[in-house]
Design a protein that fits this description.
It is built from no helices and 7 strands. It has 80 residues and is an all-beta fold. A 3-stranded antiparallel β-sheet has the order 3-6-7, with no helix packed on it. Strand 6 and strand 7 form a beta hairpin.
């Protein structure tokens, strides 16, 4: 992910949180979705129906979305 403000640790650049400016930690948001994919919703719906499928499930039915997490203000920055 590209970042405008970054922290550097051991020559690895980490993005600054867009909300609080503190360092974000790299990782993955993961979930198991064997029978369906993860979807993007513009608003909450009854029973989670509708939405646009992001089609990012792996061969084992797991979904891993790469991103960064700010533990200070609980912000996620995701890239799919």
């Amino acid at each position: 992910m590209e970042c405008l403000i970054c922290y550097t640790h051991d020559s690895i650049s980490m993005p600054a949180c867009p909300n609080c400016g503190k360092e974000m930690v790299p990782g993955f948001l993961g979930t198991e979705r064997i029978f369906s994919d993860v979807s993007w919703f513009k608003e909450k719906t009854m029973f989670g129906t509708g939405g646009e499928s992001l089609d990012i499930k792996d061969k084992m039915g797991m979904i891993y979305i790469e991103g960064y997490r700010c533990t200070s203000c609980k912000t996620l920055q995701l890239k799919y």
